[in-house]
Amino acid sequence: MLKLYTFNISHFSEKARWALDYEGIPYDERVLLPGPHQLVTRRIAPRTHVPVLEHDGQYVQGSTAIIDYLADRLGGTRLTASDPAERAKALELENQLDQALGRGVQQVLYSALLKDRRTVIDLWSSGGPFWAGGFYAVAFPAIASVVKRMYKTTDVEGVARAKERFVTTFDELDAVLAKQPYLGGEAPNRADITLAALLAPLCRVTEHRVKWPAMPAELADFEASLSGRPTWNHVLRMYRDHRTSNRSRATAATA
């Protein structure tokens, strides 16, 4: 049985979960806590981030690498085209979405959310053991400092640029979705899964396992610039129509 190490709230973890579910590949999920997770990931992978997939003594780190592994080693052909040119095109878009939207969500949302200690503690504790809330009540300042530095949330100009990238990326995706029902054409591919998973915290989709908090007031204009657009609605449709196995059952780790 495959084992997937995740954060409950991680949108990159959700991307890997969704890919496994969509391909119909069974796995056990081990939910780690942000911060203490390094006690696990440092033992099994070259870097500390999640998701990490364990299979037959091998460890595959990162959502894109995991989807590649599903296609190349485990027969996952629904999301990844067999034609090299089509696969390369989808992978290029996926990487673009990872950077513009995946990293952008981290920088933009945390720039506001970290000011609300209670909300962030609840999010980090989600899916974790009973003691998670108490741990973060003590450790929040130290972990929040690391998050601020990692995602450059105090870089005002950088946050502004990230918001601009959201708008330009939505412009490009809206144009594609005006011509075809999915980024993958007539059916979802890995780019569609990537888009939906990475934007879930922003769009606050109801089918997600996490109940996302309301958008902070300081991001109201940012949300209004994106809400209701074709790309935003595509995220909602992807969850409504294709996220039929968004599993709430997972093993909470002690780290």
Can you offer a commentary on this structure?
- The model has no long low-confidence stretch (mean pLDDT 95).
- This protein is of the alpha/beta class and 255 residues long.
- The chain contains ten helices and five strands, in the order E-H-E-H-E-E-H-H-H-H-H-H-H-H-E.
- The protein starts with a strand and ends with a strand.
- Helices cover 56% and strands 8% of the residues.
- It has helices spanning 11-23, 38-44, 63-73, 84-113, 117-125, 132-151, 156-177, 190-203, 220-224, 230-242, and strands at 2-6, 27-31, 52-55, 58-61, 251-252.
- It is globular and about 50 Å long.
- Strands 4-3-1-2-5 form a five-stranded mixed sheet, with helices on one face.
Secondary structure layout:
Layout: E1 2-6, H1 11-23, E2 27-31, H2 38-44, E3 52-55, E4 58-61, H3 63-73, H4 84-113, H5 117-125, H6 132-151, H7 156-177, H8 190-203, H9 220-224, H10 230-242, E5 251-252
Parallel strand pairs: 1-2, 2-5
Antiparallel strand pairs: 1-3, 3-4
Helix pairs in contact: 1-3, 1-8, 4-7, 4-8, 5-6, 7-10, 8-10
